[in-house]
Amino acid sequence: MNMLFDDQQLDTRARLVKAAAAIFVEQGFGAAKVRDIVARADANIAAVNYHFGSKEGLYAAVIQYHSAQAMENLSQQVTGSRRRVPAAQLRDFVRTFLQRLLTDTPQFTMGKLVAREMVEPTAAFNLIMEKFVLPQYHALRAIIRSMVGAAPPEELVRRCCLSVVGQCLYYQSARQVVSVLDPEFDYGEKDIDRLAEHIVAFSLGGVHQLVRSGTTAARKPRPARADDR
Q1: 28-56: b (≥16 Cβ within 10 Å) or e
Q2: How far is CA 6 from the centre of its chain?
Q3: CA distances from residue 25 to 52, 100, 104, 132, 172 in whole angstroms, order as listed
Q4: What's the CA gap between 171 and 132, in Å, rounded?
Q5: With 50 as the cut, is the pLDDT of residue 210 above it?
Q6: CATH number of the structural domain 1-53
Q7: Contact between residue 90 and residue 206 where contact means Cβ atoms under 8 Å apart
Q8: What is the pLDDT of residue 76?
């Protein structure tokens, strides 16, 4: 096998991953057809089995590729953010998270695949959790912990993380509702930046209120009641 053939095989594999990612985002894994993927990739239908073994194998390769790209960007973001105050770190995280969810650029493909997976889970759910969701959660968790301070209970940190993420996800999962309730929001870059500022301000206010109210203290056990015995 000469080098030219090797290059051709790598190119075919890359085209299949690119075409499959677009179709999986558009249609979801279940509805996506291999014949449509190979047609968009300008490849032979046998190439999917040759390179990936199956449609499921191709989906896993798409997840591996795009999650690696996303995590590389996250690593660069976290490295830069460590030199900034927690509020600025949170701002960087939320803006990037919203861009992954709401923009149509190829670098944010993974966010859209995850959004699909939440609606229609597949056998690749655990792979997505391991390669994409959990690394981001741990990065956000570190930011929240630094904001709360004083060794907060894990439940509080987890709830704060999910509250931040939930605000972002709503604008992706409820686009039609948002278009009615907030018709001036058009999902453009400037609107996404303003939304990021709002979510950060709202979240900071909530976290600071929790700190002031003493909710960061460890939760006391609930007193036993008669019906518990």
Answers
A1: ebeebebeebbeebebeeebbeebbeebe
A2: 33
A3: 19, 13, 10, 16, 13
A4: 20
A5: yes
A6: 1.10.10.60
A7: no
A8: 67
How many C-beta neighbours within 10 Å does residue 22 have?
A: 18
pLDDT at 27 over 80: yes
pLDDT of 224 above 80: no
156: part of which helix (H) or strand (E)?
A: helix 154-173
For residue 165, which of 205, 124, 203 has the smallest C-alpha distance? 203
Rounded Cα distance between 165 and 98, Å, is 9
Amino acid letter at 123? Answer: A
Local structure of residue 97 (DSSP, 8 states): H
The amino acid occupying position 194 is: R
State both tokens at 41.
Answer: 């990739």
- Are the C-beta atoms of 116 and 24 separated by less than 8 Å? yes
Per-residue pLDDT averaged across 65-71, rounded?
A: 84
Return the ∠ at Cα 99 (arms to 106 and 169), rounded to 5°.
Answer: 115
Mean pLDDT of the 11-37 span: 94
From 1.10.3810.10, 1.10.10.1100, 1.10.510.10, 1.10.357.10, which CATH number describes the 66-215 domain?
1.10.357.10
